[in-house]
């Protein structure tokens, strides 16, 4: 979920989101009763995104299952029903095992997320893009801390600002961090080229 929260296009994340046919809901209301459980399904995670270039709202459902668990025919049928139900709404759907992100990747996202969590990243998009282009043309040999100090000095910005711009650029996909390596000030910086 943190990886989703780190994505600037994600504006809302909901768990156990109910999906149902409008007519089934209307029948229950007319009858003065609650909906039958068979008339609704819960999607594990529903993500609301604003998609560029026009920032239209898009919904994406995610079914999460325990990693390593064998999917039964019943699970496969449920996935098919979920994908079809969401497709009728114009939503997208995917299956994600519970270990889709490693503990290290989670930790890396957390480091970057904590750097920019209270910021308007969209307002800094162009500055982050220029920063990313600058980083791509420079050596990233050394620790994260030493590289950010070097780049901050070259750009005449505070070191904290270099960290912020790096994290914003990574959140937009302008820079890609190698999540098989730790993203820490005292560790080597691994940027995928």
Reading the helices and strands in chain order gives: HEHEEHEHHHHEE
| Radius of gyration over C-alpha positions, nearest whole angstrom | 21 Å
- Rounded mean pLDDT is 92
Number of helices: 7
Give the strand line-up of the largest sheet: 1-2-3-4
Helix/strand-derived category reads alpha+beta
How would the global form be characterised?
A: elongated
Helix fraction? 40-55%
Sheet having the most strands? 4 strands, mixed
Uncertain spans, ≥5 residues at pLDDT below 50? Answer: none
N- and C-termini, Cα separation? 26 Å
Could you please describe the fold and organization of this structure?
The chain has 193 residues and is of the alpha+beta class. It has two domains: 2-97, Trna Endonuclease, Chain: A, domain 1; 103-192. The protein is built from seven helices and six strands, in the order αβαββαβααααββ. The strands form two sheets. The protein has a four-stranded mixed beta sheet with strand order 1-2-3-4. A two-stranded antiparallel sheet has the order 5-6. Helix 4 crosses helix 7. The longest helix has 16 residues, at 73-88. The protein starts with a helix and ends with a strand.
């Amino acid at each position: 979920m943190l990886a989703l929260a780190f994505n600037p296009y994600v504006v809302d994340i909901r768990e156990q989101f109910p999906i149902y046919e409008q007519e089934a809901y209307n029948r229950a209301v007319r009858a003065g009763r609650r909906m039958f459980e068979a008339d609704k399904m819960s999607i594990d995670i529903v993500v609301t995104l604003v998609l560029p270039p026009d920032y239209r709202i898009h919904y994406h459902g995610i079914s999460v299952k325990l990693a390593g668990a064998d999917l039964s025919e019943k699970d496969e049928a449920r996935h098919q029903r979920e994908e079809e139900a969401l497709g009728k709404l114009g939503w997208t759907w995917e299956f994600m095992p519970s270990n889709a992100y490693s503990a290290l990747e989670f930790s890396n996202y957390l480091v970057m997320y904590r750097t920019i969590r209270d910021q308007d990243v969209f307002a800094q998009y162009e500055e982050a893009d220029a920063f990313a282009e600058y980083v791509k043309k420079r050596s990233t040999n050394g620790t994260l801390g030493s590289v950010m100090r070097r780049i901050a000095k070259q750009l005449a910005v505070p070191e904290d600002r270099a960290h912020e711009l790096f994290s914003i650029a990574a959140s937009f996909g302008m820079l890609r961090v190698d999540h098989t390596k730790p993203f820490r000030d005292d560790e080597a910086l691994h940027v995928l080229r």
